[in-house]
Design goal:
Purple Acid Phosphatase, chain A, domain 2, 7-stranded mixed β-sheet, 15 strands
């Protein structure tokens, strides 16, 4: 039995090939798991595409079960429309029997480890705004591909559900309270405020991004995660979102391309 963890994928899945991830040889999908810390970005278009079907079926054939929390780059309305079922003590959206979305504020017991999950984050590539696909159509045509503007399009490449609701945050607190404020691993997309501060002092992210009018800065989610961090006993915290990888605190790990063992892996290690 094993648990591996990795970071953002952004619709690129070559890291899961047998050549790139030879540890999968001999794995058993009922006993071995790979967890993605958000931005799998497989469910993206307005309706299911051949690309999505191909890769969902590809993951289903893997000798491990793929689990993921949601990031900011997911089509959240479509993701939330997948069937909900029980898995390992929590709730999941089932894309395929062995490709599962770990929902916000849930606690799972996998390979004997308790894992609390909380997806979501504020997009940091929207400096020039979130545009309306109809009202801003002319501007979208001008800006698209010019390399000078960072923007997303409402309901096409950006969804407000990237940030958690008050109910989702309250649900997470209830889950942790029921667990005695203790878990083995946290898996989130965003990081707690104190860990963000450490990374900012190290120049991560390389560009912070601005908050357009009417769009959350994301600070409330970091503060929420910090509240959880300060109250809980835990062994490790894994997160993504910032497109780098390193140990960011005594027990906190920022992941991107590497797939590491949850128990004793190091970001960027072989």
């Amino acid at each position: 039995m094993s648990i591996y963890v990795t970071g953002d994928c952004h619709s690129s899945f070559s890291r899961f090939s047998t050549k790139a991830f030879p540890e999968q040889k001999g794995m058993d999908r009922e006993k071995d798991f790979v967890i993605v810390c958000g931005d799998l970005a497989l469910i993206w278009d307005q309706e299911e595409t051949s690309f999505e079907r191909y890769w969902m079926d590809w993951f289903e054939k893997k000798p491990f079960t793929t689990l993921f929390v949601d990031g900011n780059h997911e089509n959240h309305p479509r993701l939330s429309a997948y069937p909900v079922r029980d898995f390992a003590g929590g709730r999941v959206h089932e894309l395929r029997p062995h490709l599962l979305h770990l929902m916000r504020g849930e606690m799972y017991r996998i390979c004997g480890k308790r894992i609390f999950t909380f997806g979501g984050a504020r997009s940091h590539d929207i400096d020039d705004g979130v545009l309306d696909p109809v009202e801003d159509a002319a501007r979208i045509r001008r800006w698209r591909g010019d390399g000078e503007h960072d923007f997303r399009v409402m309901g096409v490449s950006w969804w407000p559900q990237e940030m958690p609701s008050e109910e989702e945050m309250a649900h997470g607190l209830r889950t942790l309270e029921a667990a005695g404020w203790e878990t083995d691993y946290f898996v989130t997309h965003e990081a707690p405020s104190s860990i963000r501060k450490i990374l900012q002092e190290e120049g991560i992210p390389k560009r912070a991004g601005k908050s357009p009018a009417g769009i959350s800065s994301g600070e409330e989610l970091c503060a929420y995660l910090e509240t959880i961090r300060s109250r809980c006993r835990y062994r490790k915290w894994f997160f993504g979102h910032l497109h780098d990888e390193r140990q960011a605190g005594e027990r906190e790990y920022l992941l991107y391309h590497s797939i590491i063992p949850a128990e004793d892996g190091e970001p960027g290690g072989e």
